[in-house]
Specification:
Blueprint (H helix, E strand, L loop, with lengths): L13 E5 L5 E5 L6 H9 L10 H7 L8 H8 L18 H4 L1 H6 L3 H9 L6
Length: about 120
């Protein structure tokens, strides 16, 4: 399996070619994503600066009142309900223990409340 197959969509520039039988071949344009692609991917993982209640979100997360996309990503682990990706420097964290989507889907509301109490999730 290639690096692209294990990476979030949008990080790598690649193209897909299909042969006559319909088999796909993925070709990377570069070995690693550039700064612009990483920045764009991370900026789509958090509430935008223009969001109506962004000040409340920033204050409840402990970031302050000035928008800081990097701090917001660190605070939220870049998690979104729409997919299964998150960022952490703690390799012991498991999807089943931390990802909001899984916790909601499996009814682990006590764990969600615990994250809210610790300030990891807003109330």
């Amino acid at each position: 399996m290639s690096l692209v197959e294990h990476s979030p969509p949008g990080l790598f520039q690649y193209h897909i070619d299909f042969d006559e039988s319909g088999r796909a071949t993925v070709t990377l344009e570069s070995e690693s994503p550039d700064h612009q692609r990483i920045y764009r991917w991370l900026s789509r993982r958090v509430a935008p600066k223009e969001r109506q209640d962004i000040t409340r979100i920033l204050e409840s997360s402990g970031i302050g009142t000035e928008y800081d996309m990097w701090s917001l990503n660190k605070y939220t682990h870049s998690m979104r309900l729409e997919d299964y990706y998150w960022i952490s420097n703690d390799m012991s964290e498991k999807y089943e223990e931390i990802h909001i989507k899984h916790l909601i889907d499996t009814g682990q509301f006590e764990k969600i409340k615990e994250f809210q109490d610790k300030g990891i999730l807003p109330r």
